[in-house]
Amino acid sequence: MIRTSSAARRLAGTAAGLSLAALLTACGSTPAHQGAAVVVGDERITVAAVEAKVTAVRDAAAAQPGGSRAERAGLARRTVAELVLDRVIARALADRGVSVADTEIVQAREADAKLLGGPDALERELLGKQGVPATGIEDFYRQQLGLQKLAAADGQDARSAAGDAAIRKALVTAGTALRIEVNPRYGHWDPAQIGLTDAPEDWLPQNSTLY
Fold first, then answer.
1. Regions of the chain with pLDDT less than 70
2. What secondary structure, in 3-state letters, does the chain show?
3. Which are the contacts of 121, defined by CB distance < 8 A and separation ≥ 6?
4. Each residue's pLDDT tens digit, 85-99
5. Does residue 185 belong to any structural domain of this protein?
6. Residues of the chain by 3-state class (helix, strand, coil), percent to 5
7. Which domain holds residue 72?
8. Within a domain: residue 195?
9. In a domain, 169, yes or no
10. How far apart are CA 29 and CA 31, in angstroms?
11. Total domain count, the chain
């Protein structure tokens, strides 16, 4: 079946359930932040990139029989949370000297498709239950397999309570080490909660020397 650990389910639920933060009131003059949804270290993820992913999910959902367009604001916030989580998982894996191979993603995807009755059935399942459009399936499996590997690196099964704790510890450590700045319209990344919280009023703290 779909390889979703309990940690991933709770993280997704938290990101989806958070209230919408206040709209952006100050973007600042720093070039790195202009048009950015989030800056993770030296990587800048644009608002346009987030909106493109949001549109893909909404269009895919609307195309399903009886489908409707998802609420855009909450979906954008969840999308940002997922993009940041991807980078946090990647950092945690790198810290342990492990990675997810493309062949592993293909194998996991094919195995789930076989169980569900084919690739189309898998796409419907992921879209309906996880909010993952066809274009995001590879990223979904990379994330899920990454979580499994984080637990395994600590000698645990991701489906167990001990594995869940190992994953969370790894993500808190990685998220703390990374320099994550989120556009306040989406919230603030809290490493301890491994998710978005309400944002401060300004894009950058006063007297910040990050950029």
1. 1-33, 65-73, 199-211
2. CCCCCHHHHHHHHHHHHCCCCCCCCCCCCCHHHCCEEEEECCEEEEHHHHHHHHHHHHHHHHHCCCCCCCCHHHHHHHHHHHHHHHHHHHHHHHHCCCCCCHHHHHHHHHHHHHHHCCHHHHHHHHHHHHCCCHHHHHHHHHHHHHHHHHHHHCCCCCCCHHHHHHHHHHHHHHHHHCCEEECCCCCEEECCCCEEECCCCCCCCCCCCCC
3. 113
4. 999 999 999 999 999
5. yes
6. 55, 10, 35
7. 6-21+34-190
8. no
9. yes
10. 6
11. 1
- Phi/psi at 43 (5° precision): -95, 130
**pLDDT tens readout for residues 48-76:** 999 999 998 888 888 776 555 556 668 88
Burial class of residue 33 in the structure, from the number of CB atoms within 10 Å of its CB (0-12 exposed, 13-18 middle, 19+ buried): buried
